[in-house]
Amino acid sequence: MRAIVQMGLVAALAATIAPSTAFAQDGNDSAGVASGFAASAPNAKAIRAANRKLAKTVRTAMAKAKGIDMTQLFVYAKGGAITLSGSVPKSAQVDRAEDVAKSVPGVSSVDNRLSVYAIER
Description:
There is one protein chain. By secondary structure, the chain is an alpha+beta fold. It has three helices and three strands, in the order H-H-E-E-H-E. It has a three-stranded mixed beta sheet with strand order 1-2-3. Strand 1 (about 75-80) and strand 2 (about 80-90) form a beta hairpin. About 10% of the residues are buried.
């Protein structure tokens, strides 16, 4: 009786181990493709972080510059290209904002979409 139980355990163990070896794969499987996608994700994340950092640097430079009202001014960055949008109270501030943005290191171009709003009294 004991021999029959042992043979049953051996058969069960063999049935458990056999499928795991049958599904063993070599190094050229889809896990390599998945890791390739994972490797590109931090790159996109790093690009977005660099864009945010450049936009923040431009905003900081404008805030430190004299004569620019930052209340309704927005700065967007994408690959060194800066887009200024929103509105300012005086037309001189439109040109001043563009000049300050161009002077920031890392800025390759400036798309100035600022408009002038009328101050109500």
